[in-house]
Amino acid sequence: MKCSIKYNTGWPLTGHLLAGVHRLTPGTSKPTVNVIPHFTSFRIRLALFFSGLWLVCASGLQANPHAESHTVYRFGVFPYLSPTRIEQAYAPLAAAFGELLGRPLRLGTAKDPDTFRTRVLRGDFAIALVPPFAVVPLVDHGGYVPLARQPSSPARIVVLINSSLKQTDGLRGKTLGLPPTRSPASVIIRIDLDKQGLLAGTDFQARYFPSTPACLHNLLVNRVDACVTGSGAGLRSFERKMGVKLRTLYRTEPFPHMLLVTRPGLPPDESDKLRHFILSLEESVAGRDLLRHTGPDSRFVPYHSADYDAIRRYLK
Known about the structure:
- The chain is of the alpha/beta class.
- Helices cover 35% and strands 16% of the residues.
- Strand 1 (5-6) and strand 2 (12-13) form a beta hairpin.
């Protein structure tokens, strides 16, 4: 299928252009310097790049109700962590979902964001934890039911407390460390810097790391001049662990993070049970323990469509 998606730039994104975006996907998870050329549709390319091309042919999205048996559900988690870490973080929650619904439930992910996107669009997962840009094709246009979302928070550029950098313009000629290319923090910072006239490969060097802690460790040993981070909880945890204090050089507008959804066709009473369960986890010791497994200060809040307007603005 060939599709054309128009944004307010007026530029159609057809198959050959989207193929060019796809070729920007890094072929390795090792820390590398990845320079993306700048041109007039740079922000659109970054948004698509970040979202794993979630927006491609969204109108053709179809959930497959027969992708798994009637007795076994799958809970899919976006591969923002290694498969081992996803298993450690989300297996207890998956088991709780299965017990709540009274049926076997398997935890799943994918080797990379593109494969995960394909599996979600194919309807492989009854329940899925998806990245924020997926709200447009899945919830806005695809009939997926939102259950709850992770709270909004800004992305930050941080520096050592004694760094000479005082504002983002000082990044010219410097090396900026970033988490994986498709992480929300990484791409939204890149878009904001682009709007400020700071281009990777021209004005500064962008060095990508497999995780935020890896980037921050390289900041401590002066291998990068600044580092992009996501949640404030993760940053505070790193500071406590390493006994350091970092300074925020730049902070973006707060944006919502990952979203729990159920696929079209799932019985409404099951979606309602899951929504009530996930939103009430903080009210019990056992629930808070499930949340702690998924990350520092992790929690879920009610979904409201307007909360994702901050994400939608990055597509304009």
